[in-house]
What we know:
Elements: H1 7-14, H2 20-33, H3 37-43, H4 49-59, H5 67-72, H6 77-80, H7 85-91, E1 94-99, E2 104-109, H8 115-125, E3 129-134, H9 137-148, H10 160-176, H11 199-207, H12 212-219, H13 221-235, H14 245-259, H15 264-276, H16 289-294, H17 296-305, H18 308-312, H19 320-327, H20 349-365, H21 377-385, H22 394-414, E4 418-422, H23 426-438, E5 442-446, H24 449-457, E6 463-466, H25 475-482, E7 492-496, H26 501-509, E8 514-517, H27 522-535, E9 545-548, H28 554-563, E10 568-574, E11 577-584, E12 587-593, E13 597-598, H29 599-606, E14 613-617, H30 631-646
Parallel strand pairs: 2-3, 4-5, 4-6, 6-7, 7-8
Antiparallel strand pairs: 1-2, 9-14, 10-11, 10-14, 11-12, 12-13
Amino acid sequence: xxxxxxxxxxxxxxxxxxxxxxxxxxxxxxxxxxxxxxxxxxxxxxxxxxxxxxxxxxxxxxxxxxxxxxxxxxxxxxxxxxxxxxxxxxxxxxxxxxxxxxxxxxxxxxxxxxxxxxxxxxxxxxxxxxxxxxxxxxxxxxxxxxxxxxxxxxxxxxxxxxxxxxxxxxxxxxxxxxxxxxxxxxxxxxxxxxxxxxxxxxxxxxxxxxxxxxxxxxxxxxxxxxxxxxxxxxxxxxxxxxxxxxxxxxxxxxxxxxxxxxxxxxxxxxxxxxxxxxxxxxxxxxxxxxxxxxxxxxxxxxxxxxxxxxxxxxxxxxxxxxxxxxxxxxxxxxxxxxxxxxxxxxxxxxxxxxxxxxxxxxxxxxxxxxxxxxxxxxxxxxxxxxxxxxxxxxxxxxxxxxxxxxxxxxxxxxxxxxxxxxxxxxxxxxxxxxxxxxxxxxxxxxxxxxxxxxxxxxxxxxxxxxxxxxxxxxxxxxxxxxxxxxxxxxxxxxxxxxxxxxxxxxxxxxxxxxxxxxxxxxxxxxxxxxxxxxxxxxxxxxxxxxxxxxxxxxxxxxxxxxxxxxxxxxxxxxxxxxxxxxxxxxxxxxxxxxxxxxxxxxxxxxxxxxxxxxxxxxxxxxxxxxxxxxxxxxxxxxxxxxxxxxx
Length: 647
């Protein structure tokens, strides 16, 4: 008979999922250490997480959510407010989805058969129906910390092996970066392992044996990369406009890797290489592949410093693909690059991808690039296009243009707002920037009042957050100097350690919209920002957003508009077909196609369109509704139908 505390282990034993010996080891571990028996099962290696969750979901007749899915989930405030954080912590539950149309709340929990818990959750959430799913207890705890309390490192605690690997990286950093005199010689040359982009070879590469060193990274790599991302962001805070550059390069690298379906372990290696590619180079020039190819001074500097990141990490067993990407990022497609004079597909794929991402991020985010101004995405792509076939892989240039355009469209659709953060403390600034970015904001940063004044004058920020303690003049003087400029109309929030009543009074007197004293919950700050931005007139209202379905697929469009609770009419054109999907606060109200189909059948038919164009008119709103499924459920059902038709 299963006890309430060891129910999961007992059920797995009864179902033959674990042996009696494994059951005994897990229950002894649980009795000695407490906590949850599910964690004990994993700790003694009685079963792996995937098998455990699948089996429990089958036993309890429900579904499961893996740690990885919880880590990557985008949970909106409208979902979190359904369950108070104290209730979530006390009962080890976490809300993951709310369907307004059916008033159904989906939560992950440890025991989905607990009727008393179900009644308590219905009472506190005010919903008509609950859907209880299975998840690992430690993952639920981490989700509560991350999404309720803003702890961006919460999931890092789940991967001990990743932390051991990263601690080794930190040890090397302390020896070799802080004291550059201790830098050792470069790592040895690596052999080239070429890949091409045909479906057959993609298939072959995804099933070939993974080297041990790559497996060691891949098993816990998302945690390692998340931690490394924070550390690199902190290191780059002193780089002025290049603060956050490597994180942006990693983001673009990942997007292009996903676009061409690069195998997972190689994708991880490319992202890792992107994060470390600038460490230790210390040149007066920013050494991007485009700059190195075009200017002799940059090339001379790159010849001396191209392998500095690898020297820093010499004592760490970096995966071969990551080493190759860093080492060969300055090779040229025409064979005139360095250090090996490799040409075309002799150049490692990760290096070719990262070179594009590095160049684009520099051109669009660094006003000290060779053009001495930040370029628009379109202009940056024109510059890159001039290097097709000489500096860059021509096929990847075309694909990268789609990725960059799609990212721009996504920001427009999501209504991502730009925040100018003026914070002198590098660590505090880096953490705040990452927290805001993880919540969908675009962040511009400044360290001094003068930098903040200059960036505010450029008019790229939707809102300004500033510390009071700035140099060479304080935040109050900064706000005063903004008054006679066009930037005076930008909402301004003081986020500061200065807590005096007189300080707050002065801030409001100068015209600040809010005065938030540190430390304050990131959720409180974000709520205030969203409220202030929501009050602003939308200058783009009526202009809409348009693009190509090859840049942004229809399922992606639907997800963005749904998650952002957007209202408007989405028009679709593909060949001779013309359709429209009408959104109201994220829900799909009506669909029409070619004047013949309407409702869900029209929607399902439009999901087949791979080519064509779209446009969103945010001024149009349909009050009538003939589709009752949530947008997410409608999309899932449509994709299921397409999958069945394709078999």
